[in-house]
Amino acid sequence: MSADTAPLSKVDSAVSGLSSSPPDKDAKGHRRASSSTTGVYNVNDLEKEGKELLIAKETQKLNWKLNTSPSTLDDKDALKKFLTTPPVKKIDLHFPLGLEVTARNLKGVTIKDALDAIHKQFKKKADDELDLPVLAGFEWDKEESWTRLKVHQKKEGAPSGGGKKKKNKGGDDDE
Questions:
Q1: E strand or H helix at 48, and its extent?
Q2: By CB count within 10 A, which of 48, 136, 159, 169 is most buried?
């Protein structure tokens, strides 16, 4: 070996102009944005801000049997409406006997989402197993719980001729 040869050293392939290092920290790969829509709130945040919830009145007119699929309803437009104003990502639905179901939708809980959550609990029940098989509406009582709605039920639906057996929003009548 000749004396003019430099000692051997490891050669990194990245050194000679090739950049195999990760790209700049600013240019991250595409990360999926949150699925939630702007204007849709977390119900806990609304409680902190003291914003009141308003429930869609359409729920009182549905005359929907809890053990039937919500897709059987005639009023398809009502199903697309938000259950509450302002819209929330999830809301608990509390039944008088203690059952609680949660309706969730990151784009805002619609009436259909609430009915789907209820239907999931009651779809295997026969008509005669349910004391109050028809949805009368929902009630929001901020004194009791800000994050959940009470579910009101009734014996039977109003006659399809537009009878006046609809429950008022306050839920004052006896059950």
A1: helix 43-49
A2: 136
- Per-residue model confidence as pLDDT tens digits over 23-72: 555 555 566 555 657 888 898 998 899 899 999 999 998 999 999 999 99
| SS3 assignment, position 54 | strand
Q: What letter represents residue 21's amino acid?
A: S
Closest CA to 91 of 110, 78, 72, 73: 110
Can you tell me the distance from the alpha carbon of 172 to that of 158, in angstroms, rounded to the nearest whole number?
18
Q: From 122, 114, 116, select the one nearest 149 (Cα to Cα).
A: 114
Listed as own residue / partner, the contacts of 126-132 with beta carbons closer than 8 Å and 24 or more positions apart are: 126/67, 127/65, 127/67, 130/66, 130/67, 132/175
For residue 8, what is the DSSP state?
Answer: P
Query: Could you tell me if 90 and 58 are in contact, meaning their C-beta atoms sit under 8 angstroms apart?
Result: no
